[in-house]
């Protein structure tokens, strides 16, 4: 099941495209973070895409493909590109991450998450 959560604590199960768009458009100081997560009861792995509206008005977009080693990050100034990517990820579109230069930042999370994956 897809779950959207923002920094203000709003949680929406099975969010629609317009809901995701509104949550992204409403990002601001104090509510600068939005996460779309695939919650699967039978697995401890995590699949999500998240965005942070930074103080310089750029968007820091990240995704994780199941394990800490597969955690990637990029930045953009385009809210439209972020929305397209998040909706593509939510829909399972294969090329949703095209158009960005992704950096693997999994090494920043490996040790902590390895203990939780056990």
Content-based structural category: alpha+beta
Q: What are the segments in which pLDDT stays under 50 over at least 5 consecutive residues?
A: 112-118
Strand content: 25-35%
Question: What integer is the average pLDDT?
Answer: 89
Instruction: State the helical fraction.
Output: 25-40%
* Main sheet characteristics: 7 strands, antiparallel
Terminal Cα span: 23 Å
Q: Count all strands and give the number.
A: 7
What is the overall shape? Answer: globular
Give your account of this protein's structure.
This protein is an alpha+beta fold and 118 residues long. It is 25% helix and 32% strand. It is built from three helices and seven strands; from the N terminus they run E-E-H-E-E-E-E-H-E-H. It has helices at 17-25, 79-91, 110-117, and strands at residues 2-6, 11-13, 33-38, 46-53, 59-66, 71-76, 103-104. It has a seven-stranded antiparallel beta sheet with strand order 2-1-3-4-5-6-7, with helices on one face. The longest helix is centred in the C-terminal third of the chain and has 13 residues, at 79-91. The protein is globular, with a radius of gyration of 14 Å. Mean pLDDT is 89; it is low at 112-118.
